[in-house]
Every structure is written in structure tokens, then in C-alpha cells.
Amino acid sequence: MPNANNDSHTTPSTNELSHVQRRAVSELLRVSPVADDLARRFKEAGFSLALVGGSVRDALLGRLGNDLDFTTDARPEDVLKIVRPWADAVWEVGIAFGTVGCRKSDFDIEVTTYRSEAYDRTSRKPEVSYGDSIEEDLVRRDFTVNAMAVALPEKEFIDPHNGLEDLAARILRTPGTPEESFSDDPLRMMRAARFAAQLDFEVAPEVVEAMTEMSGRLEIVSAERVRDELNKLILSDHPRKGLRLLVDTGLADLVLPELPALRLERDEHHRHKDVYEHTLTVLEQAVDLEENGPDLVLRLAALLHDIGKPKTRRFEKDGRVSFHHHEVVGAKMTKSRMTKLKYSNELVKDVSKLVELHLRFHGYGTGEWTDSAVRRYVRDSGPLLDRLHKLTRSDCTTRNKRKANALSRAYDGLEERIARLQEQEELDSIRPDLDGNQIMEILGVGPGPQIGKAYKHMLELRLENGPMEPEAAVAALKEWWAAQG
Q: How many domains does the chain have?
């Protein structure tokens, strides 16, 4: 047993292991027809095949899906010869890294040649070299719980690094030293945080120590790979746990420096809520409000909604602390950070817009908004309205129950007013009472800047007053036109 002298390593009971193993047998029986069929084809061609890594881990956890990972001694060109006549579809997008992908029935399959990956100090891409044994392959894997395999079709369980024990103890360790593992691929430091968030596992102290000491190595990893790993963490069941680990180890200073910056220094004279802890709580509360599975746009907006506060903090003479316009500053910072992480333009636009709008509701008070203001709220949020509802509700973290209940009732009231107006006026598709063609016909003017101004004027009237009768709309347009001289 590795690390037997480490007090943090807890040996699981026999009952725990047998329960885990029973779940694994059940999961493996479900995929056996496809897995065994593929394994026989490899054996007939003179090669070995094993289910490996996350697939074995998830089988042991009772959560194996239809994505199956295999490893083999066959080289990629040999793998292609075997799977092409068998699979429903084949893709070679990962072949440079020794991986061949294919689809069979309902299963998405990846077959990777035994390999090792290592970075040099200047490269952003791993150098791939192939190995000759599964033991050599497993020792280069990221964590012991991902360094298990099941040789097929014999169903022989291969666990040279006691991953099964670590799985039962719910702890993340590396097969070799953490320093060796993170030198091979620095992105593994982020994976530690991601797996902690996904699986609700603890990270071994020596792994956390290495993450802290080696965090600077993450600089050589491409922004796209960092972004993808961050997304998986944020979309996990326990994102707070993973994000806190990124901050505590210093990895967040490179990935998302705006998050640790929220740990504002506080003093006895100028008190305000802990913005960092508030942000993590808002994220958790947003997760609780999701209705159709994890929502990356909502979760990113919740995580970034207050990042403008450090730059806008002011100490007022009366002892209060203000963060004026932090939503505007935060929206700009959100756009900048997400662009650096290579997010799509659409995602950047949506998250930035939510950050910019997240305070708008607080002008609502106890319902003083006019119908015009409600219409503008709907128009400005557009297709993000439902997410804005969730973000606004999540942003209430006060422990004052009276205040929390008052805010909740006020927002209930706003949503009811929006629903009522939507039913009356089709708010989701607000348009002027006259379209561009009608405006040109009434004014006797062709396309041009004046028609755009007229359209905008009619839209403002629609937002301010609601729907107008056709005669009233025509009269209003002519009145405006006359005023233009």
C-alpha cells in the first residue's frame, strides 16, 4: 500500500471495497457486448485492449456512461485498420496524440495507444511517445483513481497504484510523485481541482503542496486547454470546492486572477460583506435554481458578477463602503478575461451582458417602476431574461431573513408584472407599431438615416406607452416628422 505512513491516507474497509467492486461488475456487464466484441478483434489482430482511466473509475463509482476509453499496444494506424470495418463512424481528430475515436451503436469510444506525455519548458503542446506495456502507460496517468484498467476480454483488473483504495477513501493522489506528474502535464494541477469538484474528493496534502509550488508551470499550457478544464470545473456538482482550491494554490492567479482579487482587505472602520465568499455562495445558489441541467452562461455570470468591486471600492466619510458602477466595470473586465481565455464571442457577449444588468433590479424598490421601465428591463435583457431572473435571485446572500424575504417578494412582483405585460403585449418581440416600410410610405421618404431615426422614435413611444392604435401611431409619426423641419 503506497504512502502507508501518511496519516491522511485512510485504508477503506473490506465492505467498502466489495460494494465498489459489485457496482463495477454491474456497469461492466452493461457494456460488455460492445467492449468484448472490440477486444476480440484486437486479440485476433495480435494486440491487447483494456478499458482504462475514467471509464474504470466511473464504473467503480456506478456512474459509467456511454463514453468508453480504451488503451492498447497497437499503434494508431493498426487501430484504424481494426475499427474501420467494425464501427459505425470513425474520426481521427486526436490521432496525433495516439487516439482514434469511433462510434458503435450508442457508445462513443476512444482507443489510445500506450503512451507517455511530457512538456518541455517552452512547448505549449505535449510531446507524445508510445510505450510498450500497460504498466508503463498507467504510471504516466494523472491520478491513481484514473490509473486503473480492466484487461479485455478476460476482465482482469489492473491496479498497480492502489487506485481502488484511494477511490474508496475519496482521495486524489498521483501514481508517481506529484512533481513528476505535473511536470509531464501542468494542466493536471487544474484537473486536480476539477476532479475534487466533480467527484467531491479531497486532494492529498502532498498534491496540494506541489500544486502550490508549481502553479507557475501552468503558463505554458494553451488558453484553450485551460478554458476547457475551467468549464468542466464550473459545470461540476461542487464548483465551490474546486474554485477554492484554485485560489488557495495560486493557480487562479494565472487562470482567473479576478477571483482571488475579491478577497478584499477589510478593517474595523469600513465594513462590508466578504465579496469572495459572497461570490462563491451566489454561484451555489445559481446552481440550485437551474432547471435543465448545468448552465455555463449562468454559472460564469454568477462567478464574475462582482469582479468590478475591487476597482470601484471607495471609503465614504460616513464609514460606508461604496462600489459605484461596479457592474459596468465588471462587464468590461468580464469581456477582457473571457476573451483572453478564448471563449466564443457569443458566450462573452451573453455573460458580460448579465454582469452589466445584475444590479438593474435594485432600482425597482417595492414596485415603483412604471410599465415603461419594466418593458425596458425585458428589452435590455432580451433572450437572457430567464437567466437574469436566476442571477438576481442568487445575488441575495444576506442573513437578514426580513431583508431577504422583502427582496424575494419584490422580485416575485416584478416577474408577475413582466408575465402580465408579456401576455398583453408580446414583450419578447417588442417592435414599433409601424415597421420600416410603413414609415417610408407614410413619410414618402426612401431608405436612409432619417428612417432609422423615425423607427427609433416609434420604438421609444412603444416602450413608453405600450401598443398604440394604428391611427394614433400614424399621427405620432407625422407629429415627430413635422418637428424635424
A: 3
